[in-house]
Amino acid sequence: MSGKLLLLDLDGVVALECDPPIVARREILRLHRSLDRLTRGLGERVVVVTHRSRAEAWRILKAVGVTPDELAGVRAAEDLLIAGLSLGALPTVLRHGLRKSLILPGLAREMSVLPRDVAFIDDVERNIDDLLSHGIGLGIHVPSHLDEGGEGYVSFDLDDAVAAFEAWRDSGEVGRRVAPAGVARAVEGWSRTGLCTTAQGDHLFNRARRIARRVRVALQPGAERPTS
After folding, report:
1. Per-residue pLDDT reduced to its tens digit, 51-67
2. In a domain, 97, yes or no
3. pTM for the model
4. N or C terminus: which one in the chain shows less Cβ crowding within 10 Å?
């Protein structure tokens, strides 16, 4: 273990929530047969950072086959909010939502790493920009969307992400940005989880976030919307 830390987004990197017609009803799809290459094969600590609630995140991780012993932790929406409040960043939270960089100072202290030793995989470029602007070493911006025909989806090859991480780890570079090529895939049996988190996601904390988002957009048309 080299003392690096890998942060993984959940939606778009580990799993993908899809609606008809790609599936019969809303369902969480597994994007990779196994995440072992990242969670075990790299020999580094891995933390999932998501805008979903902690309960939702763990349900999804369980459905896609990721066990708690594979991760150094999960940082969910509640943790981002607490981190923002502890940093005195309430105005930033109100204006921009729960940016994932809010978790970085506390996580770096807890894991005994510098921001330059952190790599981050996310499918939203704004999230990549956010973390890179706070001094992380590597941002991997992966594709994740439904294909144009609506019969499959576009994701990324896990080997490409592994190769990008290993090349960066050996280089010591800070602020590197990598964008793996998209890979078109059909919905296959191994990707089906049968999980829908809509009901579990309808709780007080998420309702409050949705209200705050609507208020923020109404008051500040240029404000950024929270992303997974």
Report:
1. 999 999 999 999 999 99
2. yes
3. 0.86
4. N
Q: Cβ distance 42 to 167 under 8 Å?
A: no
Looking up tokens 């330059």 gives 116
Q: What is the DSSP string of 83-124?
A: HHHHTT-HHHHHHH---GGGGHHHHHHHHT--GGGEEEEES-
Q: What is the DSSP letter of 42?
A: T
CB-based contacts of 96, cutoff 8 Å, min separation 6: 223, 224
Report yes or no: 47 and 71 within 8 Å, Cβ to Cβ: yes
CATH number for the domain spanning 194: value is 3.40.50.1000
pLDDT, tens digit (0-9, with 9 covering 90-100), for 179-208: 999 999 999 999 999 999 876 555 555 555
In a domain, 199, yes or no: yes
Pull the structure tokens for residue 159: 């080997």
b (16+ CB within 10 A) / e for 180-189: bebeebebee
Q: How far apart are CA 130 and CA 224, in angstroms?
A: 12
